[in-house]
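New to this. Look over this protein:
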Amino acid sequence: MKFATSLGLTVGFAASAVSAAATTTKMGVEQPSSAPIYMQPVVQGCFSSSGDLVFNSTQAFNSRGECGQTICQAMGKAVAASTEGSKCYCGDSYPPNSTIVEDKYCNAPCTGFGQDACGGTGYWTVYNTGIELYGVPYANESSTSSSTTSTATPSTTTLSGGQTVFVTQTSAASKKSSSNTASIAAGAVVGVVVVAAAIGAGFFIIRRRRNRQIEEEHRRNAAVNAFFSGGSGKAPSTSGHSISDSRLDPVMSQRRMSDGSIADNEDYSRRILRVTNA
């Protein structure tokens, strides 16, 4: 009888211990942030924004491994996040650094492993999937999925409880400087192209005008040659010849000196028949 009573008491204490252990196990506890591990999903904190992350699916058995590894890592995404216990997001950058909040806000139990938290209502548990360890950027405050990747400077942030998170902050000044430099470079290139086009057009116009002048001069020379050659295409040669009037008497044209006085009112260039009374 005593043995049975002792056995009953032992069983009762064991059941009470199991029940107490069950009641003390907390559900939906956010895992502490830690350094990324290659090809392993590691929690990077609780965020109040999803940033550039894109909703992938709702999982009936969601967990850190399901969302961070099976889904997002398989897609080649560096970042994963869970919210409301079952929803999985994937992307290439963490949410904005300014949206990191205390872990207590991520308190929704994962549907596949209730002891871990998978975000909360309006909060996301963010994971590094292990594809890219320390080069993952944080999204800008006003960034969208189409925003370009900017230069980032790694640093560390310590949360409550001594948790350390590796942070990559984006420099807005470097973005603006890069944008201004690109605009100036583009303007300079356009200016050089315009000047080169103007110079080329001017050279073309001058050359065309010169060719036209040469053609005009050639036409005039050809017309003059045709006029003098009578259509034969050759200019007449004047060396050794003189142009004389065919009306002149050949004999008289060869006379150089007169035999006597010559009357001014007489024309001696032609033979004149004189009639006399004999």
